[in-house]
Write a structure and sequence with these properties.
With about 350 residues, the protein is α/β, with parallel strands linked by helices. About 40% of the residues lie in helices and about 15% in strands. It catalyses: UDP-alpha-D-glucose = UDP-alpha-D-galactose.
């Protein structure tokens, strides 16, 4: 059973990927400092997998501590790097923290991978690297324009680091950059799901918490964008589908396929507006939402969704779940949480 190190493995996408890895016959090893997650996620993973997942409470920017993980796990086959701060709005308020953490963690990781001869990396990137695109949908060849937030800039810079590294004479690290669109939903068991600390930064936890009565109302950030109904359009992918894309990417690296650096969009290929998501949630769950229109959020782009032709043709990856199914799973997960979660 090949071991895959998963940084940020108790986070939202990371935890679902841990499950997908184990189900595909890999042994995931978690590294996380719980900066934006909870150790309780390990209980959910244990319930789903009927066994523990080996884990280390380590900050990936702490080279000495992270190095001890590589020493303890000397036969790693690859790494999936999720560990990063990820909220667009927060990054505008705390840019230095985002640059320090997101760039710093990748640099430390790459140094250790090279030292310990771990040569396969799947990197968690984002559609924010496209900035405000001139045309939709975006392909992997769509020019990356200035990012709309410090978070987006960190992802652009991390991609640049990996591309520059691939040109180095002494480089042996191969990487796949997965540009995510908007993950939503939860594991069908409702044992793991999106669990933001404090006020949610993403749409769906706000939706489910409003439906659950935890929040009085959902504030939709702007309705004057250049979109059919004035609200933001995004490509919403079920997190379980997204997790499976990582397994496919890992296997591609282990099979020795592809170039030194490859980039893939991971989405559904469809865009839905915020209002469409609200309507779909009400349809999928039978819950009526109390929502109001608020001001636009700094750093948000009006619309973006993926062309997924490359992932379909070269990775053989295609999403399976509908928007309604993803939203129903998010509501099922919300109902398992305490009222003050």
């Amino acid at each position: 059973m090949k071991k895959i190190l998963v940084t940020g493995g108790t986070g939202y996408i990371g935890s679902h990927t841990v499950v997908a890895l184990r189900e595909a016959g890999f042994e995931p090893i978690i590294v996380d400092n719980y900066a934006n997650s909870s150790g309780k996620v390990l209980d959910g993973l244990r319930a789903i997998l009927s066994s523990d997942v080996r884990n280390y409470e380590v900050d990936c920017t702490d080279r000495a501590a992270f190095r001890r993980v590589f020493e303890a796990e000397s036969d790693l086959a690859g790494v999936i790097h999720f560990a990063a701060f990820k909220a667009v709005g927060e990054s505008v308020q705390k840019p230095l923290a985002y640059f320090q953490n997101n760039l710093g963690s990748l640099l430390v990781l790459l140094e250790l991978m090279r030292e310990f001869k771990v040569n396969n990396l799947v990197f968690s990137s984002s559609c924010t690297v496209y900035g405000i695109p001139d045309q939709l949908p975006v392909t992997e060849e769509t020019p990356t324009k200035p990012a709309s937030s410090p978070y987006g800039r960190t992802k652009q810079m991390c991609e640049d680091i990996l591309r520059d590294l691939s040109q180095a004479d002494d480089n042996e690290v191969k990487s796949i950059l997965l540009r995510y669109f908007n993950p939503i939903g939860a594991h069908p068991s409702a044992k793991i799901g999106e669990l933001p600390l404090g006020v949610p930064q993403n749409l769906i936890p706000f939706v489910t918490q409003t439906a659950a009565g935890i929040r009085e109302k959902l504030t939709i950030n702007g309705d004057t964008y250049d979109t059919p109904d004035g609200t933001n359009i995004r490509d919403y992918i079920h997190v379980v589908d997204l997790a499976k894309a990582h397994v496919v990417a890992v296997q591609r690296l282990l099979d020795g396929k592809g170039d030194a650096v490859e980039t893939f969009n991971v989405g559904t290929g469809r865009g839905n507006s915020v209002l469409e998501v609200v309507q779909a949630f009400e349809r999928a769950t039978g819950q009526k939402l109390n929502y109001v229109i608020g001001p636009p959020r700094t750093g948000d782009v009006p619309a973006i969704y993926a062309d997924v032709t490359k992932a379909t043709q070269e990775l053989g990856f295609k999403t399976e779940s509908t928007l309604d199914e993803a939203l129903a799973s998010a509501w099922k997960w919300q109902q398992t949480l305490p009222a003050n979660a």
